[in-house]
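Q: Predict the assembly, please.
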Amino acid sequence: MGALLHHLRLAREFARVGVIRKSQFRVEFLTQVVMDTAWYLVHIVTFEILYGHTDSIAGWDRPQVRVFLGFLFLSDAFWMIWLGQSWHFGRELKDGVLDSLRLRPGSPIFVYFFQRFSLEACINGLMAAGWLGWALSGIEGSFSVGGLVLLLWALALSFWTRTVLSVLFTIAEFRAINSDLSNVAWEVSMTLSDRPVDVFPLRFRQLLTSFIPVAALSTLPAALVLGRITPLEGVLHSAWIFVLGLGVFAWWKRSFRGYTSALG
Amino acid sequence: MLIRMADAGKTFRVWRRKEGFKGFFANFVAREWTQVTALANVNLEIRRGEFVGLIGANGAGKTTLIKCVSGITPVSSGSATLFGVDSFALGDGEKRRLALVMGQRSQLWWDLPAIDSFRLLREIYSIPRDVFERRVEEAAKRLVVTEKLQRQLRQLSLGERMKMEIIGAFLHEPDVVFLDEPTIGLDLVSRETIRRYLVELNRERGATIVLTSHDMEDIEETCRRLVILRQGRVLFDGDLVGLKARVYDRRSIEVHLEPSSRTWDESLAPRLAPLGATLERSAPLTLLFSVPAANVQTFVPLLFELFQIRDLAIERHPLELLIRQIFQSGQAPAQLSSGEPKA
Amino acid sequence: MSGAAVPSALVRDLRLLVVALVYELRKVTTWRAGFVVRELMRGMWRPVVMIFVYATILVQPTDRLGSYDFRGLVAYLILAASFEKLLFHQRGLDLSDQIFQGYVTKYLTMPLRFFVLALARFAQHVLIQGGVVVLLWSAGALLLPQWWPQPASALALVEAALLVLLGSYCYFLTCFLVNALAFWLDVVWTLSAMTSFVFSFCAGVLVPVSVMPAALRDTLQWLFPYWAVNAPAEVFLGRLGHADFLRGIVVLGLTAVVLELVRQVLWRRGLARYVGAGM
Ligand SMILES: Nc1ncnc2c1ncn2[C@@H]1O[C@H](COP(=O)(O)OP(=O)(O)OP(=O)(O)O)[C@@H](O)[C@H]1O
Ligand SMILES: [Mg+2]
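A: Predicted assembly structure:
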């Protein structure tokens, strides 16, 4: 409990510092928001074009895919708000500049991965949330408390998976220094999570829901909210990914022991 | 015992690049690895409150030693412990009592004002707010950087940044602080400020400090104990005062010759020997001798007899000369080992 | 500058380019795992994933998307994947990091044009990816001959290659521009990741431009990404002809000139406000 509070306070401090960083670089807001809007639009337009030619993609109709995209956007925004540092991990590991991470108390995973809070990405978060809200309003069935709980649960699943995947991919960098493996893995997994995993063949789909749980970024949360899977299935998936996450974190910490810093 | 290294060794694996077009493919397919020994059989014990100077030529293994003791990297053989715990398995409790400053590499956040880095550290080390504010204010005042606290780290000069690093390192009042060349590239005044600050912290709080520097003045003015590394081995470990006593009973005499004077040649050596004098350095028109203090009176007239002298300066033997001898010869001053002041 | 000085500067640049290219080649192969991951794996996944999407849409053999049936789409996407791989990759240029961390400072005092060093990256990319694509292509043609697209003619192959090469150069310039924004911004990699994504949409990597709604299609045909991937693929397949190729060369050529001018201005402005880092 004390540890949790400590990390929450740290998160608050990272956020504060993130805001300070930005106040010195205001142009960034504009470029960031413009580019990300373009990114959202490309996703939306791609699906709209496809739905101009068909009614269903792997069993998902147009309103459902819009919800799917909502989760994709939000989970991406979460990544950009909190986990942007993971992008630099490979380089920093290669340059041997992680010495201080070794020396300081606290969870190195938390202190490293959450250190770069991005304020402008919060605007993306707002846009993404807006889209998700709009997409949900296009679905049959009225608003309910149970629905809200389901929504929060789905979001938590998506964000947790994001963190787990970010950490998982950087482990590859420990094995193969400067291989860019984590960034390539990130790009590939992003590409895989761009579409409902139901488009893939069965075996591959199973991989994406189990060991590389890309499906839990957007497909599973959307399926949960849309009732495409039952709450029980949702519980099972969530439990598995929670355990997987703990395993990944432990693995990362073990790998970090092998870190050799650069020359001094 | 705060720090203990027992038979500690550290080796690195490096690969050799082969030249040429064929080498280009050879490198890709099969690599030649070699072992580099950075530390070998190091035995070292440091007690609470000590101020230890760690010196050695470039590549002697100073930084590696610090990294091994502070738990950044594990030793490859033997053991290194800090606070009685294996250095490489420090828990949060131990980490809160430890700090590291590296001259060439920033421990603070590059794109943040120093004060914000400090606030982050406050959370990381759970320092109470009022204590934190008092410490920052006081330290910044002592190191004369109060005005610079609000500036981004990357916009500070080297010396200003170094002072910030030091403030950051001492914020949580660590019991042990490692400083790897903290005065690299700093001006005289800043260097002195930092030295004084370190000595005060060592004295007031009993912080144990391990300092490396290539500037002997840093070491002389701060440390009580000196450890000399050579090619990864401890060559000398003992009392700095004793070492100083040894050099202080000698004088160094710098002689500037007239262009018309005879210059130094080996045939003159036997004339110096009876007086215990040695030639330390010779340039065409400048000679540097080292003489026991008691023989200066007879040595100087001899010099005037041998050379046409334009100018001459007699000084206490600087520690640096001795250290240089040690580095070059690889011989420890035998009678001085283990902190025994010279009889 | 006098008439005699111009060729000598050019010769110097060329010499530097060769030296830097050798250095770049050596560097990419220094990290073996990195070589395999970066050079073999990256930059072709979007079209590959789209094949699965289309497979679920075009279930009946008679189903069509615009003028494409499923087989045609697969052929098109294989080409799009290959060409996207040939295109310069935004990760190939770590310029923004160099700017931000102050490494550029050291080059500024040297008697050389910094851009030549970046050009060496481009040349390295073309060489290595060219090799990789030829390898993958041959492997695919051997393993899946019934799905693998064949060039409509030798001329079509050459024309497609020219378009891709020029398009890749335009994209390289775009990457350089985005990276140079690091003089003003402190986080650029999100921008370059987004740029690559938007680019691949405009290039028809996800959906062929000809399948898009008319207004979008007509707009995209005036932008260079279309001519860097989509058009070459269709030239290769014989869906576009000689006149289209010429139009593509004009669009790409003009774009390259404009981007080059912008690059020069941006670089000069950037340097003017550059203070380096860590004094
Ligand atoms: N990560 C590493 N990989 C390979 N070799 C290393 C590594 N770190 C250190 N070495 C080697 O170990 C030896 C000792 O290096 P170290 O950095 O400890 O020297 P140092 O005493 O700090 O020197 P300096 O005074 O130049 O800072 C050197 O020969 C160096 O080349
Ligand atoms: Mg060193």
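The longest strand of chain B covers residues 32-46. Residues A 260, 262-264; B 12, 14, 36, 38, 56, 58-64 surround adenosine-5'-triphosphate (ligand 1) (CB under 6 Å).
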